[in-house]
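Side project, low priority. Logging it here so it doesn't get lost.
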Amino acid sequence: MEVHHHPHISKHTKPWKEYLLEGLMIFIAVTLGYAAENMREHYVETRKALISAKNLYVDIINDSIGFATSNGRRGKQDSCFKIVYAVYRNNKLDKEIPTIYAAHGFIALRSLYQINTLALDEIKNSGSLRFLESDKLKAAIQKYASLGMGLKLREQREFGYIDRMIDPISTKNFEYNFYKDANDNFFIEKNKIVITTPIPANLKIMKKDQLDWDNYIAILGMLHIIRESTDRLFIEPAQQQCYELLILLRNYLIKHDAL
């Protein structure tokens, strides 16, 4: 016959201090765990932000080169217009047909550098921007992005004008074969265009009787004004901000041993 023993249930209760201590220990453990997780997340995100900053640094270097190259071409376009205008003022347009071909072809080229937004968009949209430990760098990045948007809008203004006003003249009044060769095969020396490609003996302006030279110069002049405005109000501020951002990024990456 089995004998059943009832378990002994202790009616002893813990002192309230023990409950307080256990609760305090649980609170400390949870708090430390939460803090450790936050520190780990902050470390990971900070490292990601450094990688994004390094990618942006590479793009900004390329932007600085792109601005310099584009501005050189735009400066040459300005010189071409001034040469054509001088020929017009001296009533020698009919005697300077090769010059008109070369200048017009180069003026008609679309040359307005647009910044590379791949790394810029990534650092803004991924949230990495807030993990950069420099308010000045953050502000510079945001300002550069804003200037980039302005450049895109200005590109539409310039290129739209060329589409509407310059291209119809190019297709109607200039012979294609020499036009495509002359527009970048020349240099400027003593305010004159020196063409380095063979010039056809019978080169002429097509449908010359339908081309109003006064209106033609006015169209080129308006493009010149538009480009000057773009240079002063959009390109120069963006280029200056590019150089400032380049310095800030370089110093930031050097400081964090990430360059």
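Brief comment: Strands lie at 186-189, 192-195.
Revisit when time allows.
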